[in-house]
Amino acid sequence: MKQAEESAQESIERLRLALVESEARYRSLIELAQHSFWETDAAHRVTAASDAAAFVAALPVADLIGKSFWDAPSTIPDEAGWRGLQKTFERHEPFRYFEVSRLANGGERHHVLSGEPRFDPGGRFLGYRGFSRDVTERVVAARRAHEAGEHLRSAFQRANERLESALEGGMVSIWDTDLRTGEVWLSDGWAALVGGPPGETRTTVDELMALTHPDDLQEVKRRSAETVRGERASYTEEHRVRTLTGEWCWVLSRGKVAERDAGGRAVRMTGTNVDITERKRAEEALATSEAHFRAVFERSNAGIAMWDVDGTYLAANTAYCEFVGYTADDLIGKVTAGELRLPGDNEGFDMTGRMVRGEVAFTSRDRRYQRRDGSDVWGRTTVAAVKGNDGMPQHFISVVIDITEARQVRERNERINIELEERVAERTVELRSALKELDAFAYSVSHDLRAPVGAVSGLAHLLRTGEAPRLTDDGKRLLGMIEGNAERMVNLIEGLLRLSQLGRGAIKRIPLSMEELAREVVRDLAGGTRARIEVDAMPPCEGEPAIIRQVWANLIGNALKYSRKRDGARVDIGWDMEKKAYFVRDNGVGFDMQYAAKLFGAFERLHGEAEFEGSGIGLAIVQRILERHGGKIWAEAAPDRGATFWFTVPAPASARKR
Asked: Angle 473-502/404-466 helices, nearest 10 degrees?
């Protein structure tokens, strides 16, 4: 009997020791997993908590015990979220990853709760048992990553979501290693991490080491060995592990000695593995992006600088420093952007204020900078504000292109243009004076020549009438030549007088009906012609009636003259909508366009006087009239295919407005 009691006592003792060992293992796992343990009763009141502050911030254990989770004030979740949790409790269902945020003295704290219902052997509900984990650092880190830049936010967000999903779905693998046998037990998170079938995994240390990347293997072994020898309390190591598909994933591994024998030799280690592949990829992407930005920043020919909202320079590349004449050490943190503005340049402050108020996204302008040596340089500057989550500028980025040389060339050209304009004005005055003198001379000469030429013509006429019986045939022929040349001389003199008179006096402009003027000229000239003349509708113009009528008379007269030998001669007069010009077109002898430049010169003729009479001054008069009115004239023709003369005269002001 006594022996049986002793045997039972020994069994109880062994069970007690096993229980102690199990609890120690359990507490080690909880500690390494950074979880806090809690229990509730059937009424959902907290009855036990390993660390109340870990999941109900700033509430002492005494204030926590006897209360439900939803009795404590919180910022997240809202009332609907708490009601959902309460219904889950009432249905006695397990729950995972229930997020809670509470205000504490140190600020807002964030936690996640997971729990399962407890039942006695008879199936009676006893309450809940679960874990809580403080995720404040992760939430804060996520916020800071979000503020680091829009271009990296999505990458960090994906990494964060992957990490949260891994923790929630069991991708945090808890492991327990028996150092005496080398056997390793891993929770079901390991299978999800390496791509194996769901469930717990049992393997060996050697098999795990075989999955470790060769470049990381020695460092993993070294840190583990130091922990086993007691040289460090625990270790944290990031290394690569080969998955079942042959790819490499990154793992954050933590471990510590959970048990030592009586001689102090480590016999068991426990720890966790977390998949951090997405985080590492995000870090690599960030490093690559930073390297690219730095390369562009440093190698750019344009000056790039960043400055704080108070104007203090935060960074500047080599091109910017060379542009303003400062070294980076002398500029960054010591000089403000305002110090490089010239006195009186307040436009930059106004533009910065508009960006701060959100009125514009960026500004661009040409401005002068004051270099360190006091000299001025010109820069084409674009400034943009980099804003934070609150919509307020955190800093400004400025890109500057040196346009000093271009600006100097521009200013030099402006000075040259001013000088040219002054010289042109002077030459114009001289030219007008010369033209006036030339017109006066032509008028004077023409006027003075009229008397002797008239006398020659009169004497020739008296000689023909008084001495005709005594003149021989040769004498009569010579006398006819004298009369003809005298008449031709009179016509030339009259043309010179009209041409010179066109350069004097002001033009009296009134609205004119071009169609009526053209028809009047046709009635005057068409009496002795067999040509068919068509006058189309034409818009009015503005000018002096007498001399505009002379334009029509000269052009229509020329058309009739040069088409009179043509069978079926035709003259068309009208307005061309496309060219915005009046025209006179004939189907006469035409001319070669290579001689068109001679058309409007005084006394220039393209046809002999024996073939077609004329002084050669009619078109010159037309051009002078049109130029005085602000118009122009040009011609199109081909030999034996007729000619078209186009001309423009400004329309009345009322017609121009329409």
From this structure: 150
CB-CB contact of 272 with 254 (8 Å): yes
CATH number at residue 220: 3.30.450.20
77-105 average pLDDT score: 84
Residues 530 and 425 in one domain: no
Coil vs helix vs strand at 134: strand
Using CA atoms, how far apart are residues 550 and 453, in angstroms rounded to an integer?
25
Nearest of 38, 265, 276, 273 to residue 176 by alpha carbon: 273
Residue 290 belongs to a domain: no
Residue 256 is encoded by which pair of tokens?
């510590």
Q: Based on the fold, state whether residues 530 and 473 are members of the same structural domain.
A: no
CB 332 within 8 A of CB 321: no
* Alpha carbon distance 563, 573 (integer Å): 14
HSE value, Cβ hemisphere, 13 Å, CA-based, for 439: 15
Question: For residue 293, how many other CB atoms are within 10 A of its CB?
Answer: 12
Considering only CA atoms, which of 10, 59, 50 is closest in space to residue 31?
50
User: How far from chain centre, in Å, is Cα 411?
Assistant: 29
Instruction: Give the end of a domain, one of 502, 518, 549.
Output: 502
Neighbour tally for 218: CB within 10 Å: 10
Which pLDDT band holds residue 577 (cuts at 50, 70, 90)?
very high
Q: What is the pLDDT of residues 320-370, one digit of tens each?
A: 888 888 888 888 888 888 788 877 777 777 777 777 777 777 888 888 888
Q: Tokens at residue 154, please? A: 């999505």
Kindly state whether residues 118 and 222 are assigned to the same domain.
no
- Residues 583-620 have pLDDT tens digits of 999 998 888 887 676 777 654 544 445 444 545 577 88
* CB hemisphere CA count around 316 (13 angstroms): 26
Smallest Cα–Cα separation from 112: which of 159, 196, 54, 185? 54
Contact 540, 652 (CB under 8 A): yes
CA 77 vs CA 40, 71, 81, 534: distances in Å? 20, 12, 5, 94
**Number of domains comprising the chain:** 6
Whole-prediction pTM value? 0.34
Domain of 362 in residue numbering reads as: 314-402
- Shortest CA distance to 338 belongs to which of 319, 358, 324, 356? 324
Q: Best-predicted range by mean pLDDT among 56-70, 436-450, 525-539? A: 525-539
Within 10 angstroms of residue 550's Cβ, the number of other Cβ atoms is 19
Q: How far apart are CA 24 and CA 302, in angstroms?
A: 65
Maximum C-alpha span of the chain: 196
